[in-house]
Specification:
It contains 18 helices and 18 strands. By secondary structure, it is α/β, with parallel strands linked by helices.
Length: 480
């Protein structure tokens, strides 16, 4: 496994981006067994010994009926199926498996004299066949192919979700943002549960993806569960999966998102909206890393890292009885607070330029630029929708603007009343104007105490002194 970036490595760029590789789930992470179906116990034991020697879990069935029931209860990773069995022969068992679980890989066990029947079984949907006596090398090749096929099926689900966010980026260089990045990098190297806190639109999912990317699990799946996008009953099935017949419309067993995330990271977005019954089930997952599918009673163990996010004040939710205290403590192992955009205005010009280039390229538009007054205009707004609102505004401007330069008229936001930029200022002057206001307000709030002002702003005392001189401020309480 490639060595992850050092958690304490310095952050040198304003824009942090990554290209996500396709998921390459390690076969050893699979927790589902290989099912051997044969009425001959000697054959079962011989095949079992060889599969265990290759490092795989094994389950056994003595006949077709028993196999069908076992598959209905818990879908295995693959099935090795003998054709010659009493009660329910191999061909009929294969047909029933195809109805129950069309994608389940079935390998036929055959003797040299019945290879023609094995070929016919492959026409009926079997993936491959092995002959008795078993060749260890050939058997290993067959098993690897079928488990790689199973892994690719899971990847197809994940890659569709990741395509829209193939290059998530953290843009900015404000003190508050860099502090959040530093904490995220440190916790990424561990398996600890992470709680991302912040208003809607502050970039919690982007941070979650980066924690996964920085972690030793970066080659495993990253699975997103939006806890408010589905009704409660659908959310439970989406999260834990369900057994065949668990409810109306459950025609086959389905894996849940927790199971799909095995070996990787699951991101639970808006965890504060979980209903109490699901909170109890999630608590068990965090404690034991196991659960049951809806309508089932078999324990399923998973190797996952949980990252949760919410815009709610969970401690207040606990006080008012809407969120379990024990679950809150389990989630809040390491908390990362993401600042709202109004508290890191110095990042607004960087974000605006980043989104401008991204949307011009993505929408096949000629590269545009901002008029100096446009950056001043963006700095004057408080952004209740945070980075998401800014991105939407820039995308709209790129679509509707017919000119090469975007003006304030194409950025319909209301100026914050107490913002006083330098009229007609350019990009740098607009940022400087904002810096003056922030530093002046901090000095006023601390009666000119630069040490307390530096602490309030999250700056070093020496750096604040240099900044005061650079901005032409006196360093007194009135800041003028």
């Amino acid at each position: 496994m490639p060595k992850p970036p050092r958690p304490g490595a310095p952050i040198r760029r304003a824009i942090i981006g990554a290209e996500f590789r396709s998921t390459e789930a390690t076969l050893s992470l699979s927790t589902a067994p290989i099912l051997i179906v044969d009425d001959d116990p000697d054959i079962r034991e011989a095949l079992k010994d060889r599969l265990i020697a290759l490092g795989y879990a094994v389950a056994q069935a003595a006949n077709g009926r028993q196999a069908v029931q076992m598959i209905a209860d818990e879908e295995p990773a693959a099935v090795f199926l003998d054709l010659q069995m009493p009660q329910l022969d191999g061909m009929e068992t294969l047909r029933r498996i195809r109805v129950m679980s069309p994608d389940l890989a079935v390998v036929i066990i055959t003797a040299h004299g019945t290879i023609e029947r094995a070929v016919e079984a492959m026409r009926q949907g079997a993936l491959d066949f092995v002959t008795k006596p078993f060749s260890m090398d050939y058997l290993e090749g067959v098993v690897r192919r079928i488990l790689e096929r199973r892994t690719l099926k899971r990847e197809n689900i994940l890659l569709r979700e990741q395509a829209a966010a193939a290059r998530p980026e953290i843009v900015g260089r404000s003190t508050e943002l860099l502090r959040a990045i530093e904490i995220a990098r440190k916790v990424a190297a561990t398996s600890s549960t992470v709680l991302l806190l912040g208003e809607s639109g502050t970039g919690k999912e982007v941070f979650a993806r980066w924690i996964h990317q920085w972690s030793p699990r970066h080659d495993g799946p990253f699975v997103v569960v939006n806890c408010v996008a589905l009704r409660d009953e659908l959310l439970e099935s989406e999260l834990f999966g369900h057994e065949r017949g668990a409810f109306t419309g459950a025609h086959e067993m389905r894996q849940g998102r927790l199971e799909i995330a095995d070996g990787g990271t699951v991101f639970l977005d808006e965890i504060g909206d979980f209903r109490p019954e699901l909170q109890a089930k999630l608590l068990r997952v965090l404690q034991e890393r196991e659960f049951e599918r809806v309508g089932g009673n078999k324990r399923i163990q998973v190797n996952i890292r949980v990252i949760a996010a919410t815009h709610r004040n969970l401690s207040k939710e606990v006080e008012e009885g809407r969120f379990r205290e024990d679950l809150y403590f389990r989630l809040n192992v390491v908390a990362v607070s993401l600042p709202p955009l109004r508290e890191r205005r110095e990042d607004i010009p960087l974000l605006a330029e980043h989104f401008l280039h991204r949307f011009c390229q993505g929408l096949n538009k000629p590269l545009k630029s901002f008029a100096p007054q446009a950056i001043e205009h963006l700095l004057s707004y408080d952004w209740p929708g945070n980075v998401r609102e800014l991105a939407n505004l820039i995308e709209r401007a790129v679509i509707l603007s017919d000119d090469a330069v975007i003006t304030p008229d194409e950025l319909p936001v209301r100026r914050t009343p107490d913002f006083e930029p330098a009229r007609g200022a350019g990009y740098r002057e607009a940022v400087r104007s904002y810096q003056r206001r922030v530093v002046r307000d901090a000095l006023i709030a601390t009666d000119g105490n630069q040490a307390r002002a530096a602490e309030r702003l999250g700056l070093g005392r020496t750096y604040l002194s240099r900044l005061i001189r650079k901005l032409g401020l006196s360093g007194s309480a009135n800041g003028s």
